[in-house]
Amino acid sequence: MSTLRVALVQLYGRPTKKECIANAITQIRLAKDRGAQLIILPECFNSPYSTAEFGRYAEEIPRGETSLALAKVAAELGIYLVGGTFPELDGTKLYNTCPVFGPKGELLCKYRKMHLFDMDIPGRCTFQESSVLAPGDRLATFSIGTLKIGIGICWDKRFPELTACYRQLGCDMMIFPSAFDPYTGPLHWDLLGRSRALDNQMFVALVSPARDPTTDYVAYGYSLLCDPWGRVLCRAKEDQELLVTDIDLKLCAEIKQQIPVLRQKRSDIYELKVKK
């Protein structure tokens, strides 16, 4: 496999969970019609991004209604489906979780947001995920052919060590379902996506909800896909939008040979390692 057709699905929220799921599945089918093999949904696509609402919308993975619907459509279409994120209930704890389903509808992995979004910029954006959510403590990867893919969620991409750990595990692509705010988005969104791609010589996808100024938390939008050179291959605008593009998997090997920084690291002086 030398190329992979990837779809980034930027979605508006809907009044109910059922309507959010239906909207996502409609767009997933459209992406498949355009030949997408890997389809990626945004963060919190089936619920409001609200600490007051996470508990009400939470469900078990993979037995909840959202997981069952995503597994069903993945099997029907024979696709790899990164299910954005939605609130997960596990016992008494809530997580912001990204499940990944394979072409037989199987749950390939799930990733729980490790770095929780606690930010306070007075007058701009204040949010505290840690007031209701528990942090994850495991990396999560899956493979499509020889392409190994790592999962992070939104705030995780601000921690370069995390992506570097995925790079150590052999990942050539990172996917971050994300819901940045409109203040830090223009400042950091492209910069973080391109930096993580360039630093680790991998593809990086950032997939956002569409921007809706009527909601309590307004997402930035502008979903994008970067290549290992740090170039933006495609970028959405603010509204609901479906991006479909082919990625050239040969680029990963080529850039690692041409700019061999990954094998030039001074492990005799400094070291990074995955503990779990």
3D architecture notes:
- The protein has six helices and 15 strands.
- With 276 residues, the protein is α/β, with parallel strands linked by helices.
- Strand 1, helix 1 and strand 2 form a beta-alpha-beta unit.
- It is globular, with a radius of gyration of 18 Å.
Distance between the termini: 30 Å
How is the biggest beta sheet arranged?
Answer: 7 strands, mixed
Structural class category: alpha/beta
Rg: 18 Å
Cα shape: globular
Mean pLDDT: 95
Q: pLDDT under 50 segments (min length 5)? A: none
Helix content: 25-40%
Give the topology.
Blueprint: E1 3-10, H1 17-33, E2 38-40, H2 54-57, H3 65-77, E3 80-82, E4 86-90, E5 93-101, E6 107-112, E7 118-121, E8 125-128, E9 141-144, E10 147-151, H4 160-168, E11 173-177, H5 184-200, E12 203-207, E13 224-226, E14 232-235, E15 241-248, H6 250-258
Parallel strand pairs: 1-2, 2-3, 10-11, 11-12
Antiparallel strand pairs: 1-15, 3-5, 4-5, 5-6, 7-8, 9-10, 12-13, 13-14
